[in-house]
């Protein structure tokens, strides 16, 4: 099997630049955003993102383990 | 069936007025169209092990991340107009159409391991997560 799935992933930098430019273009400023979110909300969002990140990792990992075992058998 | 009796699409090519005009939809709906067609046929074989990606789990994970992006933006940007504008632009990037068709046939074989992997969905999930993280980083939450 010839899939090196990891290489297909979009570059982190590209996504960051894109998001940044979209926010900038719409006149969204960092300071303004900060004042809109309370510390409590911040913490909640942080946990939410962390949770999703873990779920994605677990998902990707389960695929990768399958690939690895596949390679071993080749 | 007689060849003449057959219905053929090109025989019915009428020239009718096509007055369709291009319309810009006021609101862009977040469109994710994913079709996963997977066929695994095993015939006359023994000890065949099949492992596939749980597409439903992947799709729901994908949906969760999209909701999370929406939540973050709605908390962060108070001004409705600007928020919608940001959402729309992001949605253009997130809009994906994917079709995944796989057919695997195993016949007269022994000791076979089949692994199927849906790269499309894995990439899409990764992209969405990166968008979410990028937004959150910009907001200085992480």
Give me a quick take on this structure.
The complex is a heterodimer of chains A (about 70) and B (about 140). Chain A has about 70 residues and is mainly alpha-helical. Chain A has helices spanning about 10-25, 30-35, 40-74.
Largest sheet of chain B: 2 strands, parallel
Number of helices of chain A: 3
Shape by Cα distribution of chain B = flat
Beta-strand portion of chain A reads under 5%
Protein name (chain A): Spore coat protein W
Keywords (chain A): Coiled coil
Coiled coil (chain A): 30-62
InterPro entries (chain B): Spore_coat_X/V
Which tags fit this structure?
heterodimer; A: 74 residues; mainly alpha; 3 helices; 0% strand; flat; disordered N terminus; B: 142 residues; alpha/beta; two-stranded parallel sheet; 40% helix; Spore_coat_X/V (chain B)
Architecture overview:
The complex is a heterodimer of chains A (about 70) and B (about 140). Chain A has about 70 residues and is mainly α. Chain A has helices spanning about 10-25, 30-35, 40-74. Chain A is flat, with a radius of gyration of 18 Å. Chain B has a two-stranded parallel ribbon. Chain B has one domain (about 30-140). Chain B contains 3 helices and 4 strands; from the N terminus they run ββααββα. The longest helix of chain B is centred in the middle third of the chain and has 22 residues, at about 55-75. Classes of the chains: A mainly alpha (about 70), B alpha/beta (about 140). The interface between A and B is large, with 42 and 43 residues.
């Amino acid at each position: 099997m010839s899939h090196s799935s990891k290489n297909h992933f979009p570059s982190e930098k590209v996504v960051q630049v894109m998001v940044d430019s979209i926010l900038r273009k719409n006149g969204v400023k960092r300071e303004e955003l900060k004042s809109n979110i309370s510390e409590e909300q911040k913490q909640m969002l942080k946990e939410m993102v962390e949770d999703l990140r873990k779920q994605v990792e677990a998902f990707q990992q389960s695929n990768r383990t399958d690939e690895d075992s596949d390679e071993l058998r080749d | 069936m007689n060849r003449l009796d057959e219905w053929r699409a090109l025989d019915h090519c009428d020239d009718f007025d096509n007055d369709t005009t291009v319309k810009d939809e006021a609101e862009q709906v977040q469109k994710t169209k994913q079709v996963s067609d997977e066929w695994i046929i095993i015939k006359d074989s023994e000890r065949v092990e099949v492992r596939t990606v749980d597409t439903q789990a992947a799709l729901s994970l994908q949906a969760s991340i999209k909701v999370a992006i929406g939540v973050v933006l709605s908390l962060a940007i108070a001004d409705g107009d600007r928020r919608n504008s940001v959402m729309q632009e992001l949605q253009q990037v997130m809009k994906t159409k994917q079709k995944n068709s796989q057919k695997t046939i195993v016949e007269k074989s022994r000791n076979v391991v089949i692994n199927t992997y849906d790269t499309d969905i894995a990439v899409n999930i990764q992209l969405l997560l990166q968008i979410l993280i990028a937004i959150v980083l910009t907001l200085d939450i992480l």
